[in-house]
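Entry:
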Amino acid sequence: MVSEQRLRRWLRDIQTGRRTVTDVVDGLKRWPIDEIRFARLDLHRRLRRGLPEVILCEGKTPEQLVRLVKRMQAAGELILLTRLDPATAQLLQQKTRTLRYDAMARLGYWVPPRQSIRLRGLVVVTSGGTADVPVAEEAARTLELLGSRTARLYDVGVAGIHRLLNAFRLLQRARAIVVAAGMEGALASVVAGLVRCPVIAVPTSVGYGASFSGIGPLLTMLNSCAPGVGVVNIDNGFGAGYLAHLLNRPSSR
């Protein structure tokens, strides 16, 4: 894995004579892609984007996931596995014992032994109801693993708007807010009308027939009358957490 920090260290080594230009070029040639028969791991993604490649588990066999996890561990890279079901997680933990699993968020993760995650800024993750919490937790855990300080504010839907208003001061401190809501999905507009930071709306598939498995709240969020609302795909807690982290983290330039 080539991170910006590693590349800067190599360049300093060139200045001090500890490495040659050829050594660094050869190192970069070896690292960009780790090719497996069924996949090509992008080991330069952190260098380009500041964050590592994330593995979507749906559609992959347990054997493929075991190989991917072992390759990323060998590269010393943070591992984040999304949409990981409990049975596959148990198998992965047997094969790679240091992997951890959050059943609510359906996330598997591994932090390299000598790497610490420093939490910065503040992102508030809200949910309309308790049924939306799994999607909200996917966002919250993603944020924390990527390095964003996260506050959870669950079950604050518009049916009892006073619950949200009680947390007004917390909302004002956030650099970004994630709103996971099903049913009619109105919570995102309400939150956006109260704050000055970006709001990332996540429509969930929670709701009765006319919510059409998340299409109803998706359309509500897309039609929000409050400016500053961005919308991700239905149940995409990971995408919301990733985007919120990009908004929260300080620029490296």
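The domain at 120-248 is CATH 3.40.50.1970 (Rossmann fold).
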